[in-house]
Protein: EAL domain-containing protein
Amino acid sequence: AKAAGRQCARGFTPAMARALEEKSWMEAELRKALAEGGLQLHFQPKVHLRSGALLGAEVLLRWPCPGRGWIPPDRFIPLAEECGLVNAIDAWVLRAACAQWAAWRDQGLAVPGLAVNVSPSRFVHDDVVADVQAALTQHALPPEGLTLEVTERLMLDEAQDRRAVSQLSALRAMGVGVSIDDFGTGYSSLSYLRRLPVSELKLDRSFVSRLDSDTDDRSLTRAIVSIAEAMELNLVAEGLETVAQAERLRQLGCEVAQGYWLSRPLSAEAFAVWCEAVRDG
Ligand code: C2E
Ligand code: CA
Ligand code: CA
Ligand code: CA
Structure:
């Protein structure tokens, strides 16, 4: 790649060559990690604020990369999307999450539900319905406990949109939940809420983090609470970091949250310990 870089047209700098090399190295490592069991799942509790009850957990992917430490998903998911690896990764996450959920159940630990992130491209190229059906059936898991989190990016492309709507409708009919992730940050129109069979909105962290200081964000949060109520959708606040934010959310009518104030994302082992501590008061 270095030699190729030198031969290239003017404007192709050594720094660009290095970036490209780094990218193809990371892509190869990521492929290897997926094939060889090098990816891990972490779990972040989703909690009912008033009662403190555990309602479920969001599954978050972790990649301990040899020689590089933990690479955050915000770096490797976009790379995986670019190189066409994200669908295979998300399919693995779904299977591994369901296997873990069943393992907890078999150990006597009742986890009410799991939420899994799904990239928009999966709804174009994959049969998500069949994959979900297979994962749930294999472990005899309740469809009502599973939620798929999708972002508003899903609605940007019309062809994608059609396939997504039919797959999400089939999933809702099975009882699986569909959540709009990062709600309030992406798309300019809310009309897709009429077309998409959605069961939950996730209030983006950017709203939650400014609840203390910004009255506009407070008004927007109140508006989103109203949308959720009017459309009979669950609402989950993400990125809850302080007791003051928790108090504000409760005042505004948002009952369910995730965030560092409740718990960081935890390894499977640590999550089980956390659940037992909550259960035993
Ligand atoms: P997301 O779906 O919006 O996930 C929430 C992110 O916020 C997570 O970052 C979580 O660790 C972080 N977070 C949770 N509570 C707090 C808090 O109180 N304060 C702050 N500052 N952050 C908090 P993470 O794990 O680094 O994941 C980043 C993004 O990567 C996710 O954003 C999601 O879009 C993507 N991602 C993670 N796992 C998967 C996956 O399995 N598949 C796909 N397609 N994307 C994934
Ligand atoms: Ca999410
Ligand atoms: Ca989110
Ligand atoms: Ca977010």
